[in-house]
């Protein structure tokens, strides 16, 4: 499995070597601490402001056409 990851994946060498172990059923990453994901409204704010900017640019383009 490591050889497949190294050949076809775009990962840096040795990325999984210290965390995952190769076994008969593939890679086992048991015991690796999971990161807590904290949800924030930053992504939502970015997407809504991007939509607003796109809408405003479209309206300005239609107005000056």
Automatic annotation (TrEMBL):
The keyword Membrane applies. The chain crosses the membrane at residues 45-64. The keyword Repeat does not apply. Residues 1-27 form the GPI-anchored protein LLG1-like domain. InterPro entries: LLG1-like, LORELEI-like. Keywords: Membrane, Transmembrane, Transmembrane helix. This is GPI-anchored protein LLG1-like domain-containing protein. It comes from Aegilops tauschii subsp. strangulata (Goatgrass).
């Amino acid at each position: 499995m490591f050889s497949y990851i190294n050949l076809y994946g775009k990962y840096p060498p040795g990325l999984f070597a210290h965390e995952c172990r190769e076994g008969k059923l593939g890679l086992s990453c048991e015991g690796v601490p999971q990161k807590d994901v904290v949800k924030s409204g930053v992504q939502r704010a970015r997407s809504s402001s991007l939509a607003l900017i796109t809408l405003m640019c479209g309206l300005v383009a239609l107005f000056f056409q």
